[in-house]
Structures are given as structure tokens and as C-alpha cells.
Amino acid sequence: MSYVIEVVRGDITKANTEAIVNAANNQFWMGAGVAGAIKRAGGEVIENEAVKKGPVMPGEAVYTGAGRLPFKAVIHAAVMGQDLRTSDKLIRQATIASLNIAETLKIESVAFPAFGTGVGGFPMTACANIMIKAARGYQSLAKAIKRVQFCLFDELGYKVFSDRLKDES
Predict the structure, then answer these.
(1) Cα–Cα–Cα angle for 12, 145, 154, nearest 5°?
(2) What pLDDT sits at residue 2?
């Protein structure tokens, strides 16, 4: 079974999906960027629940409830450790770990931000290449997932991910 992969521009806390993914550190404290936006919109309960599940190895993921947000779950992908640095390998592992959790929870649609491109300083183009390739590679394993969305907050991220998805088709 395969699913649809799409790219949208917008606020991930308002995504039209059953779950969203947080680009996290391996302790799961939620400071700035996507994590901060999720915490502001959904409440500190999300961070409190996530922190109790950490620390994990970078590249792994956990899930929590969504607080005030309308999602079935927030998946927290540990894209970096306490050094706030990431790599191709960690982005790939965290993307797959997040898809594994969505599949386990029988989530039909999940929205991802661009991993590691904010605080982690990872290049947007490389991130798009890695995440879209990982999502494509996972399609043959998916049973529950019907739609994977990459939700980019700014025009640059949206354009880079859109162009990369077109190149993949």
C-alpha cells in the first residue's frame, strides 16, 4: 500500500492531519521553533509528558497526547542531542522512527516540519532530500498511513520541499 506525500505552507499546529511531528532534542524540552509553537498552542502538558519519556538516543522518537491541540498525538522526533547539532543520519532515523510510531498508532495522516533546519542549522535542501527519500522508502511498509505531509512555515522551506517532491515524481 502506498500513501500520498504532499507539501504545504503553514503552521503545523493547524495542520489538517491526525498527528503532527515535533523536531525535538533527545531530552524533549520544548524551547523555540516548532517545539515552542507546539507548546504555546497545545500547552505545557505536552512538554511535561514528553520530558518524562526522555532522554532517548538521538534519532529515536516518542509520542504524547496533544494537549489543547486537535490531534490524536504529537510525535516527538529526537533530531538532535543536547549539543543541538544534527546530521543526515539522525534526520533519516528520526523520520523513520516517527513514521513507525504513526503506523503503530494507526494514524492515517501525519504532518512533519523540516527537521534540524532551525536551531540545528541543517541546510534546507539536504533536509528535504533526506526526509522525502525516507518517506518514499517507507511507503511499502505502511498499512495505516494514507498521507504524509511536510508542513513548512516559510516560503523558502515550502519551495525547497515542493521542488524536491516534484523532482522525485
Answers:
(1) 20
(2) 83
